[in-house]
Amino acid sequence: MAAGSTGSNAAPTPSWSDLPADLLIIVLERLEFPQALVFASVCTAWRYAAAAAGVPRSSVPCFMSWADPAHEGYTARGGLAINCSLYSLLDINKAYEISFPRRCFVACCGASHGWLVMVNELSNLVLYNPFTTAAIDLPPITDFSCVQAVYGDRGSLEHYIFAEAAVQETSYLGIWFYQKAVLSCSPSKGGDYVVMIIHRDSDWLSFVKAGQSKWTPVITSSRGSRDHYVDCAYHYGRFYSITLYGMVDDVG
Amino acid sequence: MAAPESGDGNNGAARMVTLISSDNTRFEVEAAAASLSQTLQLTILDGGGGGGDGIPLPNVDSATLSKVLEYCIKHAPAAANGGAPNATAVDRAELERFDNEFVNIDQSVLYSLIMAAHNLEIEGLQSLVAKKVADMIKGKSPMEIRRTLGFPDPTPEEQAEMNAHMLEYGWAYE
């Protein structure tokens, strides 16, 4: 099987699985994130090398950071795609750069069950799994009555009007419109998930179920007019919200 | 770190060293080229490898060594310039073309090369082959990678382990 070109003395069949770990890591450093996981699947030795190099696994929590698009080239319209780094919680010096293949996400407003809730360049939410690169589009931002789309002569989206007054660039509105997003379960393998979001200056709470095409607003009783939602969590089949004034609500 | 070889000993003629492969083939090469290897550089600075002595390399066969030396001879002038601040764009393009062509070889030769580069501590060659291997891996499934790199067929245990690992990320089987 070894190529005859290696000369007269029959070289032993080279075995890439026997490559020293430091060489494997040098190869690994040249792979982008999801490909590094494929690398780890190849054989046991490669899996150990990937673990030693700090390649995150979907079953282990990691810390994610990303560049603030407001500082990184927002001026280039539409060219403000963010990338992020995943840090191991066990060794903060091990970082893995992720560049999103779609290169169109402008912000991230949540992470649950191995999925990220990303904002795309049209300010719509997208569920994105960095481990598989699967993406699920959620209903558009124009679903909310406070956002109107303005189209140009040729039917292309020009910008949004927010609250019937403010003109917002299509990629900019989403950067501040969503405060937090939470998933009830993983959308992988047809999971029957619900996404709950806090949005519009922390004033609103809305949700969408798997497969639905519309956001449904949540009416809660406990908010005073000057109160805001600060957090939202899912636990045993129910979502709970908490406000700045400390009101906890079971939001179904 | 290394002193340039230019002012070394006998004027004009470059200093030569002899390297001996695992299958006892002797290679005579300029010390400057052999010194791309961190391991050899130390021996050469100590005055080794000259005359009839030769430096034995028990881990590198003649086919691999001649390939390694081809790389070293090509890269020696740029390395002697200390990363070549005065290299022209043409020189750099020529080296890049050489590098691309150089690693366009069978995976078994690539394996011998990266092992030799590792043993001899030739950093440039090591990263060149590593990059080539990464390029060969990109966009392939674990099974395709195994086939590309000539792995033996996985044992049932290995297969089960691979399946479990792939399942963790919800990847489809090939």
UniProtKB/TrEMBL annotation, chain A:
Pfam families with a match to the protein in the record: Beta-prop_KIB1-4 (PF03478), F-box (PF00646)
Domain F-box: 16-49
Source species, domain of life: Eukaryota
InterPro entries listed in its UniProt record: F-box-like_dom_sf (IPR036047), F-box_dom (IPR001810), KIB1-4_b-propeller (IPR005174)
Signal peptide (residue range): none
All residue ranges annotated as the KIB1-4 beta-propeller domain in the record: 87-247
Designated name of the protein: F-box domain-containing protein
Gene: gb14692
TrEMBL record, chain B:
GO biological process, one term: ubiquitin-dependent protein catabolic process
Pathway given in the UniProt record: Protein modification; protein ubiquitination
Signal sequence region: none
Positions of the SKP1 component dimerisation domain: 124-163
Domain SKP1 component POZ: 16-75
Entry keyword set: Ubl conjugation pathway
Superkingdom of origin organism: Eukaryota
The family this protein is said to belong to: Belongs to the SKP1 family.
Known role: Involved in ubiquitination and subsequent proteasomal degradation of target proteins. Together with CUL1, RBX1 and a F-box protein, it forms a SCF E3 ubiquitin ligase complex. The functional specificity of this complex depends on the type of F-box protein. In the SCF complex, it serves as an adapter that links the F-box protein to CUL1.
PANTHER family from the UniProt entry: SKP1
Name of the protein described by the UniProt record: SKP1-like protein
Lineage: Eukaryota, Viridiplantae, Streptophyta, Embryophyta, Tracheophyta
Gene: ga14711
